[in-house]
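REQUEST ID: PR-0412
SUBMITTED BY: lab tech R.K.
PRIORITY: routine
TASK: structure prediction, single protein chain
INPUT:
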Amino acid sequence: MDGQQRKLPGPPCSGSDLLRARDTASRRRGGVDRAQDHGRRRRSVHGSSAAPDSPPAVGSCGPWRARRTVGFGLLQGTDGPAPMPREEAAISCALFDMDGTLYDSELSFHALRRDLGLPTDGEPILVQLERLPKRLRDAGVQRLHAAEEEAAGRGSLLPGAAELLAWLHEQAVLCALITNNSRRSLDTVLRRLSLRFDLTLSRDDGPMKPDPALYIEALQRFGLSPDQAVAIGDSALDARAAHAAGIRSIFLVHLSPLAARLVPAELPYVAADSLDDVRRHLQARWGSPSDRIT
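STATUS: complete
OUTPUT:
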């Protein structure tokens, strides 16, 4: 399955379903109550809307205009996207992983596992460390935290990340960042790179991936269903968590052969070589600005 695209299953929405989704979105134009709003006022899905404190930063993704739900077609085959009707799935949010997906931390978790004597079995490092004797566990956790904080201060956005986030903002698609990293490291990255998301969740906010809890929380905060979401990550952890949350539109980028082997064979996803590829696939389904549903 290494790097192979798979057909994403799931029934398309009817025209009436899409209209209902658009009506729902229009009623929620106030935004979302955020765990971390990074400089914007807290707003409730059910309450009135307050204007943002500042205009969007370059590469940011947020609801500075009324949100729209737009048609999204599931990717099929390997020859690129095919034209399809508007009334497919109404995608209103994008749920991103951070390290290796949007952000190059220059931290090799594979090398860190090797140095700590941990297996490469697709489990989070912290979960693996919990099985060690206390002395080794404490030393390993301390080393992991130090490595994460150092990486948060030196890494950079991966190619295509700023363009993808800016384009999603233009479509008024809600964006969440969901990471197994710490809140401290996450906030350091966002502050350094002037990134803004509608919602950010870290391992300090709930169970780590592949547990689906943070994906489910993001959907609940946005007031959306799984079929209105697209998940974008770079590992089996991301794919397993998103799939367990009910999301069926899953992109995995920068996927190595080792990472691909860790994805369960029965789990559908789309392999993309870059974030630019993801953006082109989404643009092909959503059409040009003049064609978009408003």
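NOTES: Confidence is low (pLDDT under 50) at residues 1-34, 38-58, 62-87, 288-294.
REVIEWED BY: pending
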